[in-house]
Fold this protein.
Amino acid sequence: MTMEVSKERRTSRSQCALPKASRVIQKWCGTDPEAHAYPGAVVLVAKQGEILMHEAFGFMRLNPDPIPMSVDSVFDLASLTKAVATTTAALVLIDLGEIGLDDPLEYFAPCLADHPLGKVHIRHLLTQTLGLTGWVPLFKRGARRDDIPFFMRGVELSWPAGTRVQYSCPGFILLGWVIEKVSGMTLDDFTRELIFEPLEMGDTMFLPLDKPVPDRIRRRLVPTEPRSATLRGREIMEAFAAFKMPDSIPDARHINEYSRRHGPEDCKQRNVEREWSVRHIAGDIPCGVVHDENAAWLGGVAGNAGLFSTAEDLLKFGEMYLNEGIYNGKSILSSSAIRLATQDWTRGLPGDDHRGLGWQFATPGGPLGDLAPPGCFGHTGFTGTVIWIDPKHEIVAVLLTNRLQFTRSNQHILRVRRLFINTVFAEI
């Protein structure tokens, strides 16, 4: 099935052609953490290239000053990074003949040759069948990007890879490292050049801490959870504070001169320290720095989290999947890669869900609701984000919220996203 996508996108004549879906999002939007799921949200639903719903609700942030949400607000996608960035990058490398699903990790990381992780295949990482559950956060180990496989040696597999589905982040952190090693590029550069620029996803990017936030998105960034609200958050703040801040940190205008005087690596580290500080509102609330602690420790770029985007950009990504890897005449992925990613790789395995390559399929009680048709797939993000793609009816649905401003103790989003997508499929 292919779908022609035009730059002159068709929009429904009514402001919102899905009033029931709109009412669900509005009902759960507000300022009371007891009664509401999030202070604000952005929703976009399209069928066959026609936008049926694109609305902003509530507030982008409540403190210190309330700011209304806008349809072009930029969200921390959290684990949507796994599907949108890391999985897509892996599929690009498969298309290019650079990696294969049955490649063992020891091929890329010889330090794992005498460790069970060395026998794990790329497909185990993509299908959440790695077999690794408990592990020590990278920032507690002082791990750096180049050291990721070595530090993973300290973790034991809970069961043989490929025998059980268990969602976790370490496998995608490892996959991000593999992508960088094979491509010779950082994950943010690789995804920008080979995925997001061809898809015209101009507001989709990682925000590495060694570079300033682009001015065009700075005021549209949605804050997440106060670090002080959780032990893990306080620990990552302490870890960054352990780097002694210099008396004077150069601003962006003087960064080149500082680099000449002090050396590029020292300059880079000091810029990371500066960016970490300025990207927290009131010194505590992340805004423009990834919420996930491990991704933050890795400089804001990791295979498990770190991507920022808008609802409209995610629609473009979903439509690329509906059009068998093509967007506006440009081939991002082969149709074979799309078919590979969207088949059920974990059927019959014990575990909590059914998985494609990087994607989760609709299952009873899952985040895709009760009315999702067979073949529908998607992914969720801890910050309150989700995308659904229905190839049969050519539907893309995106729900982005700032639910973490109520802190992670507010779990209403688990129910709300199912209620919302139920109304979408019922109305369409």
